[in-house]
Amino acid sequence: MSEQKQILVSGASGLIGRPLRKALESRGHGVRTLSRSSRGDYQWDVDSGHLDPAALEGVDAVVHLAGEGIAQRWTDAAKARILGSRVDGTKLLADAVLQRKQRPAFISASGISYYGIAQSEEVDEHSPSGDGFLAEVVRRWEGAAQPLVDAGVRTVFLRTGIVLSAKGGALAKMLPPFKMGVGGRVGSGRQRMSWVSLDDLVAMYVHVVESESLEGPVNAVAPEAVSNQEFTKVLGKVLGRPTIFPLPAAVVKALFGEMGRETILGDLAVSPGVLEASGFRWRHTKLEAALRATIQP
Predict the structure, then answer these.
(1) What is the CATH number of the domain that holds 98?
(2) What's the domain range around 157?
(3) DSSP string across 2-17
(4) From CA 296, how far away is CA 77, in angstroms rounded?
(5) How far apart are alpha carbons 59 and 74 in whole angstroms?
(6) Does some domain include residue 13?
(7) What is the chain's mean pLDDT, rounded?
(8) Burial of residue 54, with CB atoms counted within 10 A of its CB: 0-12 exposed, 13-18 middle, 19 or more buried
(9) In terms of DSSP bridges, do strands 155-160 and 30-35 run parallel, antiparallel, or are they unpaired?
(10) Going by C-beta distance under 8 Å and a sequence separation of 6 or more, which residues neighbour residue 166?
(11) Is the pLDDT of residue 111 over 70?
(12) Which ranges of the chain does DSSP label H, i.e. alpha helix?
């Protein structure tokens, strides 16, 4: 058991935040929440630049999960919200951390979209950034915390892949058509998908909180990426449904525009080299077992 810590979590009511809070508390850590509403222990308002100064008192680590959802039509206004919620929120927290005499570690959500829309080779934490709107978002998102890095504060970015959960995210949106037997591969089906079970992602955050030697980017994915064709086949097997209705790339682009091109049709095989070197142990390294645990708990 790690030394008990006091941890401030933004986005604690979200898909990752809820189980993360329980996991941290089960290991003896104290958790306080930062919210835009009165339901949190402490309040903040990114738009106005307000953050309750008491939120960081006695805190050993900040886990920053809050941010505008990606899965929406990317109008100019939506893009501004996606970018601003991440950059401005991170900057507000980073400035508050720098004002403390005892500065807590800063652990932030991030995305594998840092590496771009498509890469022909497998990428790891040493790979350069790529092209696309989301790559730019991640660069600026992580860049907003650079003053912490420069000041010597332990700063970690969990670059997360497709999170498997029946309660939210990409898989939850895929389940209804697949359960009805009208699912199928997307586009060519050859594009690679780097995924992680929600249970493992939560465990990764706990691992990073407790592993004080970890710093910088950490790819939060399972060890093996799969093609969209393979993902489709395995999901159909787990659900006991056929997967014979492909969704052409042209239809994805027509329905979802730029968002669909960068996410649904994105092609990234990402290696979790830092986690492997740090001794992290996955509960789910194979897609079928992960989907069964997620869909049929």
Answers:
(1) 3.40.50.720
(2) 6-161+196-221+271-283
(3) PPP-EEEEESTTSTTH
(4) 38
(5) 36
(6) yes
(7) 95
(8) exposed
(9) unpaired
(10) 172, 175, 294, 295
(11) yes
(12) 17-26, 76-98, 133-143, 146-150, 169-179, 198-210, 228-239, 249-262, 273-277, 287-295
User: How many domains are there within the chain?
Assistant: 1
Please, what is the angle between helix 287-295 and helix 198-210, to 10°? 100
1: pLDDT confidence band, cut at 50, 70 and 90?
low
Rounded Cα gap, residues 200 and 291, in angstroms: 12
- 241 domain-assigned: no
**Helices 17-26 and 198-210, packing angle to 10 deg:** 50
Q: What is the pTM of this model?
A: 0.96
Produce one character per residue of 182-205: b if its CB has 16 or more CB atoms within 10 Å, e if not: ebbbbbebebbbbbbbbbbbbbbb
Backbone angles phi, psi at 164, to 5 degrees: -85, 110
- Reported as a single tens digit per residue, the pLDDT across 180-234 is 999 999 999 999 999 999 999 999 999 999 999 999 999 999 999 999 999 999 9
